[in-house]
Design goal:
This protein is α+β, with helices and mostly antiparallel strands and about 650 residues long. It contains 11 helices and 36 strands. The strands form 10 sheets. It has an 8-stranded mixed beta sheet, with no helix packed on it. The protein has a 4-stranded antiparallel beta sheet with strand order 9-10-15-12, with no helix packed on it. Strands 27-24-23-29 form a 4-stranded mixed beta sheet, with no helix packed on it. Helix 3 crosses helix 5, helix 6 crosses helix 8 and helix 8 crosses helix 9. The longest helix is centred in the middle third of the chain and has 22 residues. It is elongated, with a radius of gyration of 32 Å. The two termini are about 65 Å apart.
């Protein structure tokens, strides 16, 4: 089923207000709903939005004081945004991002009005009265108003629910400038914000952080929210309608964290009932990744009119309280909010991780669903032969928010790392990544995450990230296996790749052997296609399965049992002969425990020898012959049992 078709089917389900908490859809279908909703939002944004920020880089934001007045019945905003900043390069000019559709009334600097220009590239250029020196801390206030221009989608939307007006915002990735003056890029978080919202008194405004004051006077309602954590511009939010407020709390590491949500009155009971998913997920994620990042404030949801959700800091906007969406948006509070991708090229650091948190939630609440969900993700990612986790074109909204690549393949990259490292090292790496002073409450690139997993794993993962992050496609596996007379298993593991950007995916591969009563799984380091392995299980299997627990993103994994190459005890085969570069000695069904291989020249001089311990597995011993002169040689082979072979060899 196509993603957009699925999206609209879900909306029909939601409009019927069914008990969606039971979630009949698998994780891939749910992820496609979220990704499709975000794609549709960005498709509606104005042309050129992905140019990002044009704000000047000569100042660093420390604090925004946002004063907004809205009426949910009218698509219009009137505001004052006071920006506190530190000068990073001496200047007498500052440039903010602000959509040209909005009108700047004035800019106040220490009580004085400044000259300014609004440009066609959606910037507000402000002339300071004097040059400000490096490290100077200062502030100015921008007064503005107008009808936000977003083409009818997303960044500032006025619509209705049950006939009641509502305004809500969704600014990711570059939509913040459509409704307020800010620095709109992925390079400058405010240390904190204050938000003051004025609405007609029949409505309620909501935003990030804690509600400090809420009062009515003269037909108006005034709400003051305070958020004291670093925040990027696209995560600052505003919504207003006749919200009903729901309050609860959950114990997180000895502290009662408030849960405060705002819902449409007609859906209050459903949100109240399904808040249990939020409480579950908060405890699971805090135990797994570290304490909820905004533990000093709160978490909650605001209902809005889009088919999915957006992870506004401390206050995720969601359409409906279904468990995977709740887990996904909550997961973003760690991955996307506390640490934000520093480029949309690395959106998987937000979305792949949030999809991963959904899996972690189901591991704890519905573990029986995991194999089917992993297989569904594999089927989705491998439905096309190409595509990388890295976003090669950050102007292509469908590519940035690709459910198949940014969400699902990004998730599987993490899943495979977990398989390689083991849970203890993997989750230790996640926690140190989140706690890194250089990254926490800031921005990160893929290389930053790679550094932490390499440190925890104690190995280089350069090749892994080259293959799975930068490279495209996935591997397919095919194996042949046989038993020798000693019941040792010999198998050859072959690999093909779906895309020429990667010629081989070097991975540890789990292989399971079983019969009706026993099974055993071994892990082999697969470093080249055609590699052979031997293993003694202590029983005779009838079935071989490659990657039984789905640790590898692979579409086809076939196995074939073949007859053993020999049934003769101590069967020795020597090849090639003549041997221009290398002589191979294959010993099948060995009966001894020690093998000696000696090579003499025609004069009886020793030119090569090897000692080999024997375990019962077929053995392949090699002797290099490149350095030997042309002529006749004599190979002597014997073991500590009854084996003795003498063979004439030509070079």
């Amino acid at each position: 089923m196509k993603a957009k078709t699925l999206f609209f089917l879900l909306l029909l389900c939601l409009s019927a207000a069914t008990a969606f908490s039971q979630q009949p859809l698998n994780i891939v279908q749910q992820t496609e709903i979220i990704a499709t909703a975000e794609q549709r939002h960005f498709e509606g944004m104005q042309q050129g939005a992905f140019n990002g920020t044009h704000a000047s880089n000569n100042f660093d934001i420390s604090f925004y004081r946002c004063e907004w007045e809205v009426d949910p019945a009218v698509k219009y905003i009137k505001g004052v945004v006071t920006s506190y900043f530190t000068i990073t390069a001496a200047t007498n000019t500052l440039v903010f991002d602000l959509n040209a559709a909005l009108t700047t009334d004035s800019v106040l600097y220490h009580g004085t009005k400044l000259l300014f220009t609004q440009a066609a590239n959606n910037t507000l250029q402000i002339q300071l009265p004097a040059t400000l020196a490096v490290s100077k801390k200062d502030s100015l206030a921008i007064f503005y108003k107008g009808v936000p221009d977003d083409g009818g989608f997303g960044s500032f939307t006025q619509t209705t629910h049950a006939g009641v007006p509502i305004i809500w915002t969704l600014s990711e990735p570059y939509g913040a400038k459509d409704w307020w003056p800010c620095k709109n890029g992925l390079d400058d978080k405010a240390d904190s914000i204050d938000v003051f919202i004025t609405t007609p008194d029949i409505y309620r405004g909501v935003s990030n952080g804690m509600l400090v004051q809420d009062w009515t006077a003269n037909g108006k309602r005034y709400s003051y929210f305070k958020h004291r954590y670093p925040i990027t511009s696209y995560l600052i939010c505003l919504a207003a309608t006749n919200f009903a407020e729901y309050r609860d709390s959950v114990l997180i590491e000895g502290k009662q964290l408030p849960i405060i949500s705002y819902t449409y009155p007609e859906n209050y009971t459903v949100f109240q009932t399904e808040e249990r998913f939020t409480k579950e997920a908060l405890q699971i994620f805090s135990n797994t990744f570290g304490t909820y990042p905004y533990i000093k404030e709160k978490y909650g949801h605001t209902q809005f009119g889009w088919g999915g959700g957006i992870e506004h800091q401390t206050n995720s906007f969601i359409a409906w309280p279904w468990n995977f969406l709740i887990a996904h948006e909550l997961g973003h509070q760690w991955f996307g909010d506390k640490i934000t991708c520093a480029s949309w090229e690395d959106i998987w650091l937000n979305e792949g991780f949030a999809t991963f948190t959904g899996i972690i939630y189901f591991e704890n609440t519905a573990p029986a669903s995991i194999p089917a969900n992993l297989q569904a993700v594999i089927n989705n990612v491998t439905s096309q032969p190409g595509g990388s986790v890295k976003v090669p074109d950050t102007t292509n909204v469908n590519r940035i928010f690709s459910g198949r690549l940014s969400y699902n393949k990004g998730f599987y990259l993490l899943h495979m790392l977990r398989g390689i490292m083991g849970d203890a090292k993997f989750f230790a790496a996640i926690r140190t990544y989140l706690a890194d002073p250089a990254l926490q409450f800031g921005y990160a690139r893929t290389a930053d995450f790679q550094k932490h997993v390499e440190t925890a794993a104690g190995i280089s993962l350069t090749e892994f990230f080259k293959d799975w992050y930068t490279g495209e496609g996935y591997p397919d596996y095919a194996a042949t296996w046989s038993l020798n007379n000693n019941n040792w298993i010999s198998f050859q593991l072959n690999q093909t790749t779906s895309h020429p950007s990667v010629n081989f995916f070097e991975m540890p591969v789990q292989v399971q052997f079983k019969n009706a009563t026993k099974d055993s799984t071994v892990t082999v380091p697969h470093t080249f296609s055609g590699q052979r392995f031997s293993v003694n299980l202590g029983f005779v299997p009838d079935t071989m399965i490659i990657d039984p627990k789905l640790w590898i993103l692979s579409r086809n994994k076939t196995t074939q049992k073949v007859n053993s190459r020999s049934t003769v005890v101590d069967d020795v085969r020597i090849y090639p002969n003549p041997a221009p570069t290398q002589l191979n000695i294959l010993l099948q069904n060995p009966s001894g425990q020690q093998l000696q291989v000696v090579l003499y020249n025609s004069a009886g001089q020793l030119v090569a020898q090897k000692q080999q311990s024997l375990s019962g597995a077929d053995e392949l011993i090699t002797l290099a012959t490149t350095h030997l002169a042309r002529g006749v040689y004599w190979l002597h082979i014997k073991d500590n049992n009854n084996l003795q072979v003498v063979k004439k060899i030509m070079k």
